[in-house]
Structure formats: C-alpha cells, structure tokens
Design brief:
This protein is mainly beta. Helix content is 1%, strand content 55%. It has 3 domains: 18-249, Jelly Rolls, CATH 2.60.120; 254-350, Immunoglobulins (Immunoglobulin-like); 356-434, Immunoglobulin-like (Sandwich), CATH 2.60.40. Strands 2, 4, 5, 7, 12, 15, 16 and 18 form an 8-stranded antiparallel sheet that branches. A 7-stranded antiparallel sheet has the order 3-6-17-8-9-10-11, with no helix packed on it. β15 (201-206) and β16 form a beta hairpin.
C-alpha cells in the first residue's frame, strides 16, 4: 500500500525524511577475527557502538575473512549462532527502523531454515522459528537455503510464501514501522522510488527488488529497541557472510536549508514544462526530477544542478519531452552536498499525449519513413500510409514495446502531402507528413 503523503510536505520549504544513523558496522575496517571470536564488546568511542555480541556454540564459528563476518555452521547437531545489538542498557530509541546489510551464502548449504532477522524490544529472545510476538519480536523474516550452491529464499517467519531464489552478495533492506500514533511512513526505497509503509507493518527489499510489502508485524505491541540475527538450533549446515550493517531511524523530520517558493507543472503541446523557484539555498547540490503515472511509484527522469549557497532568489526549469498519456505526477527531490534528501509536494498535470502517440519523418535519401511511437501498452499495431486521394501506399505490421520506440518503415511514395495511420488494439492515430 503506497500513498502520496502531502501532509509531510509543504510549499514554503522542503521537508526531509529523517534518517538519523543509529548504528553501523563495516567489518573491513572495524573488527578483527579475534574480536568476533565469542563476545564482541561495544566500542568505547561515544556514539560508535558496535555489536554487543557475536556468539557461537558447538559446531559453529565466527571470524572475519576478506573484510566480511563469516558465520560457519558445520553440523546439524543442536547449536546456535547469534549476532546481537542492544540489550538492557542500550536502546535504539526508534519507532521506524531501516536495517541494511550485505548477505551472501557461500558454497552449498543443506536445505532448510537459515538465519532469522528480528527487530523488537531490548528483551528480544533467540526466538527464530515461532511466529509470535511473545518473545519481544516486533517484526522478523527468515532466510531459507534451497540446497543449491549459494542460493536462498526469504519469507515471513512461520507463515506466508517464500520469495523467488536469490544468490550472490545482495544488499538486504528491512524497513519496519512502529509509529505509536498509527501513522504511515514515507521512505526512500533502494530503487530510488518513494514508498509508504502503514503502521505496524514491514517491507523487505533484496537489492532493488521489493520481495515483501506491508507485512503485518507479529508483535505490534513490542518496541523497536534491538535487533538480532539467529541461526536455527539444528537441521542445517551453512557458511554465510555478513557486512556493511547500517541501521537508521527514519522518523526524525528536519527542514533542509532550501526554501522552495513555487513549483508548477504545465502541459505544453506534447511536453510538460516544470518550473520552480527558491528564495534561499544552503549547500544545495542538485534537484532530481521524479515522475509517476499513478501517483504512487516515482522514478527519476532527470536532474538539475543547484546553486550551492545563495540568498538570492533562483528560478529553475525542466522540460519532460517524454510525458506519459493522461495525468503525470511530478515531485522534486532536493539533495544537499552532504547527501541529505528532501521531497517537494506533488504536482499533477494532464498531458496532451494520446494513449498512442505518433511522429513521422520521411527521408528521401534512404527511402524510408522514421516513426517515433509512444505506446501505453506492449502489443501489435498496423502502420499505413495513404495519399490525399485515400489510396493506400504501404502497410506494415509492428510489434510495439511499452513506452517510446523508434521504427524505420520502407516508403517510396511520391512527393507531396501524405497521411500516416497507426492502429493499435484500442485506437487509431493519424499524422500528416510531407515527402
């Protein structure tokens, strides 16, 4: 479920999505094999806490190899390996967590349940199999090894359908919403889109693919003060790698130092003209221009350089020359020099682009007409050319891809005005052109 949260945005300035970093761990630079053998104590540096414990038991071990944390479970005998952060004296203090880390299965594991990733209260137990919030868990998911080399799936613990299989090093992004006010969260997804997460649900991304969407928390009354990764106590043998842990709090909105005074979107022939103005800017790197055809999922279609730091009003423009048919939704993503992000309000405008759009240019030199076609959907089409007397000169079947396509069609008609016709499953569009 995704929505445009205009309540989070206002025209007198950008509002950033909060992303206060709580925790990070890069094993290439922050740990040695000795430090992860048994207990790994938090760093004494203020604000630089690391894992409180990386523990293993019989027939499992933890080490750092090649800058990655390796958990090696060598037997199906009863044993447990955990990676923990938090505890009674440490609180993440967040209502919304984004937990990111790199994960890879090495070699060929035995098929069965692998690591479970849990987020919950400071009393979070090694509760890796039962789908219940009674053990401190708010939300969780599990890796399951397929038995094929380096391959695994993911699924909510205890219920639901497993994802497609993944392999190789992947970035895992686990986003959990526990807003006590019952509100939804707007967050930036790994693919650059803007997504909305309802209260007490979670999303899971592997790379740029969202594999689970709005999954209900199993323990919605539990807080989000801790997270833990736990192996099953038996049944599988596997060697896995972890690295690049980053945990952020997504609920700390801050106003970025760019004052937006206007933002408009207007249809202009087949294009959409965007214009916006700022009153002042501080460390403004650039603006990303985002577009959506449904008002839900936005993608980047261009960018415009900012003016750094200035107290002089600035005006900006951008022309979308590939507008979608129907209503187009536009949003500005402002990025400062530190990488902080902010989103403008959403502007909606109906384009002049038909569901199918056709542009024709004739070439006397090579005996062709060159078509630029926009198709709302993939499918078959028929292209025809007529003279002014209505006599058909040429006809050709086309297979159109969704979006814009460039096609060359042989044409040896005489000089003068002609009429081109493109017929799809739903409509016919025409255009006059001169040979």
């Amino acid at each position: 479920m995704k929505k445009i949260l205009l309540s989070l945005l206002f025209i007198s300035g950008f509002v950033a999505s909060g992303f206060g970093q709580i925790f990070s761990q890069n094993f290439a630079t922050e740990a040695t094999s000795a430090e992860v053998s048994g207990l790994y104590v938090s760093s004494s540096a203020p604000g630089n806490s690391k894992f409180t414990a990386i523990s293993t038991s019989t027939n499992s071990s933890a080490s750092v190899v090649g800058g990655k944390l390796i958990i090696d479970k060598t037997s199906t005998s009863s044993n447990l390996a955990t990676i923990s952060y938090g505890g009674a004296a440490i609180s993440l203090g967040s209502q919304v967590l984004k937990i990111k880390f790199s994960f890879q299965v090495n070699g060929t594991p035995s098929a069965g349940a692998g690591f479970t990733v849990l987020a919950g209260s400071t009393a979070l137990a090694n509760n890796n199999t039962v789908q219940s919030g009674a053990m401190g868990s708010h939300s969780r998911f599990a890796f399951t090894y397929t038995g094929n080399p380096g391959e695994y799936t993911v699924k909510p613990v205890g219920f639901g359908t497993a994802s497609a299989a993944f392999s190789g090093a992947q970035t895992i992004t686990f986003v959990i919403n526990n807003l006590t006010s019952g509100g939804s969260l707007s967050y930036e997804a790994p693919n650059g889109s803007r997504e909305t997460l309802p209260n007490d649900t979670w999303d899971l991304w592997i790379g740029n693919t969202r594999v689970f969407n709005d999954v209900a928390a199993d323990g919605p009354t539990n807080s989000l003060d801790n997270f833990k990764l736990v192996t099953p106590s038996s049944a599988v043998v596997a060697n896995v790698s972890f690295d690049d842990f980053v945990v952020t709090n997504e609920t700390e909105p801050t106003t970025l130092p760019v004052s937006l005074t206007s933002f408009t979107a207007k249809a202009n022939l087949q294009n959409i003209d965007l214009a916006w103005s700022t009153a002042t800017e501080t460390d403004n790197s650039h603006f990303d221009i985002l577009r959506s055809g449904d008002g839900k999922t936005f993608t980047k279609i261009g960018d415009v350089k900012g003016n750094g730091t200035t107290d002089i009003a600035k005006n900006y423009t951008f022309i979308d020359k590939n507008a979608l048919p129907g209503v187009n939704y536009y949003q500005l993503k402002q990025v400062d020099n530190n990488g902080n992000l902010a989103l403008s309000e959403v502007e909606a405008v109906k384009s002049n682009v038909a569901a199918s759009n056709l542009k024709v240019a004739a070439s006397k030199q090579d005996g062709t007409v060159k078509l630029t076609v926009f198709a709302a959907n993939e499918g078959k089409a028929t292209f025809k050319i007529y003279d002014l007397n209505g006599r058909k000169i040429t006809e050709q079947a086309l297979n159109l891809s969704k979006g814009y396509s460039n096609v060359s069609v042989p044409f040896n008609g005489g000089n003068g005005l002609h009429i081109a016709s493109l017929t799809t499953a739903t409509e016919t569009v025409t255009q006059k052109f001169i040979q």
